[in-house]
Design brief:
The protein is an alpha+beta fold. The protein is built from five helices and four strands. A hairpin with a 4-residue loop joins strand 1 and strand 2. Helix 1 crosses helix 2.
Length: 149
């Protein structure tokens, strides 16, 4: 990854961590809570699904810049997607965060590609995927807590 691209990605992550989008409670939505005991990141994900489509998604919580930015970007890209598309995005994002960037995965992820460098830092992978695992639990209607241990 070029230094210019790395700097752009860092700027996007910092912007979303300082000014997270959709950081709010969403009444009447499916809810799940996530926790990363290694660093203390906590997230609650709210997802409003109607007729199999994600109408709205929001989150609350506290965590590091990677965790907060990942949740923020996730909420932006999921609105208007079907539950099946949300599941596919989870799989592609998880592969990107855990196994690293590939032309196919990064190209199909849009804004989420800013997290391509996370795989180089194994301790940060759990930060990046916490909101996503929590989203999966919310979509399944599993209100139990999710832990990335």
């Amino acid at each position: 990854m070029s230094p210019e691209l790395r700097e752009l990605y860092q700027e996007v992550i910092v912007e979303h961590s300082k000014r997270p989008r959709n950081f709010r409670r969403l009444e009447g939505a499916r809810v799940a809570e996530g926790y990363n005991p290694l660093c203390g990141d906590k997230v609650t994900v709210y997802v409003d699904v109607h007729d199999g489509m994600v109408r709205d998604v929001a989150f609350q919580g506290s965590g590091c810049a990677i965790s907060t930015a990942s949740a923020s970007v996730m909420t932006e890209v999921l609105k208007g997607k079907s539950e099946a598309e949300a599941g596919q995005l989870f799989e592609r994002f998880h592969a990107l965060a855990t196994r690293g960037p590939s032309a196919a995965a990064a190209g199909s992820l849009g804004k989420l590609a800013v997290f391509a460098g996370v795989s180089a830092f194994p301790s940060r992978v759990k930060c990046a995927v916490l909101a996503w695992h929590t989203l999966q639990a919310a979509l399944k209607g599993d209100a139990a807590s999710v832990s990335t241990e």
